[in-house]
């Protein structure tokens, strides 16, 4: 007996999908199961363990190594009452502002502006030089700057005859590591601004120039407002990247002399692996994560206002 079907009504596979949507969704999700499992084990797992360890007395040696106990907020209270921790927070902010917010951001924009107006040969040479510094491993870049700024380094060989030679890694350690981070990380900002500047229509800049706007006025009233969102995005990315810099500083100064260049990542490493206080070290790591979160919220609010 023939079955009457309403015109436009679902039939065949479409009808089965509508009838059993949950089964169809599960079948589609099955190929993703290995990837989800790997993410849970290798990404979410360590993060959750760090959160747990931050509230315990976990240690590599001593009492916490054999009998781990829940200590509540004791690790955080110890951190916020420590002068060494406060010194590390201040140095982290100084290092981030000097090398990322000011150094990499401003120099990257300046290089992108100069490249836009230069000939192809100069643009290529500058690009290769700056990106070359970027692709060098962090430890290698740290050793290069150590060899340049050390007491018997290249810089003192050049200016020593003028009586200006000194151990820059001892007298100005946080400035020295900030300069090294600017040198290594400026390429990222330069590439970001190169892409943003290429999107500005030439007609707008030509119209401003015909109206008598100087180079500074065009930059202030035309270029910067048109790439404002890119500036904010770039600042957020390089700030988060700079907050976690470890190898560069460790190679150049190991946080010294004393604690004059000991940023939060180095302080965390010292507490966790030199002093074996894993619980306290992971508490410092969570504080560093919170600092990055504060910076991210500020930049996200700026992006929304734009």
Automatic annotation (TrEMBL):
A biological-process GO annotation: transmembrane transport
SUPFAM superfamilies xrefs: MetI-like (SSF161098)
Keyword entries, A-Z: Cell membrane, Membrane, Transmembrane, Transmembrane helix, Transport
Membrane topology (UniProt): Multi-pass membrane protein
Principal place of residence: membrane
Domain of life of the native organism: Bacteria
Entry's localization field: Cell membrane
Membrane-spanning ranges: 26-55, 89-113, 125-148, 168-193, 235-253, 273-300
GO cellular component, as recorded: plasma membrane
Pfam families: BPD_transp_1
Domain ABC transmembrane type-1, residue spans: 90-299
PANTHER family: BLR7065 PROTEIN, SPERMIDINE_PUTRESCINE TRANSPORT SYSTEM PERMEASE PROTEIN
Family to which this protein belongs: Belongs to the binding-protein-dependent transport system permease family.
Record-given protein name: Carbohydrate ABC transporter membrane protein 1 (CUT1 family)
Organism this protein belongs to: Kineococcus rhizosphaerae
Lineage: Bacteria, Bacillati, Actinomycetota, Actinomycetes, Kineosporiales
């Amino acid at each position: 007996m023939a079955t009457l079907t309403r015109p436009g009504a679902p039939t065949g596979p479409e009808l089965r999908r509508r009838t059993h949507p949950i089964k169809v969704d599960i079948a589609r999700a099955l190929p993703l199961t290995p990837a989800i499992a790997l993410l849970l084990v290798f990404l979410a797992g360590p993060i959750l363990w760090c959160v747990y360890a931050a509230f315990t007395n976990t240690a590599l040696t001593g009492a916490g190594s054999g009998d781990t106990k829940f200590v509540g907020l004791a690790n955080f209270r110890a951190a916020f009452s420590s002068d060494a921790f406060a010194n590390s927070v201040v140095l982290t902010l100084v290092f981030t502002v000097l090398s990322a917010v000011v150094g990499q951001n401003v120099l990257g924009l300046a290089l992108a502006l100069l490249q836009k107006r230069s000939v192809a040969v100069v643009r290529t040479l500058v690009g290769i030089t700056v990106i070359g510094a970027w692709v060098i491993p962090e430890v290698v870049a740290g050793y290069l700057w150590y060899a340049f700024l050390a007491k018997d380094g290249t810089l003192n060989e050049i200016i020593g005859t003028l009586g200006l030679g000194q151990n820059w890694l001892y007298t100005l350690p946080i400035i020295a590591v900030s300069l090294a981070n600017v040198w290594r990380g400026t390429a990222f900002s330069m590439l970001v601004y190169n892409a943003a500047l290429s999107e500005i229509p030439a007609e707008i800049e030509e119209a401003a120039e015909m109206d008598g706007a100087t180079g500074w006025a065009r930059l202030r009233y035309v270029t910067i407002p048109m790439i404002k969102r890119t500036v904010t995005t770039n600042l957020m990315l390089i700030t988060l990247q700079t907050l976690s810099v470890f190898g560069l500083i460790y190679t150049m100064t190991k946080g010294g002399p004393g604690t004059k260049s000991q940023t939060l990542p180095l302080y965390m490493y010292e507490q966790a692996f030199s002093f074996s206080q894993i619980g306290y070290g992971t508490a410092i790591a969570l504080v560093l994560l919170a600092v990055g979160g504060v910076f991210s919220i500020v930049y996200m609010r700026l992006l929304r206002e734009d």
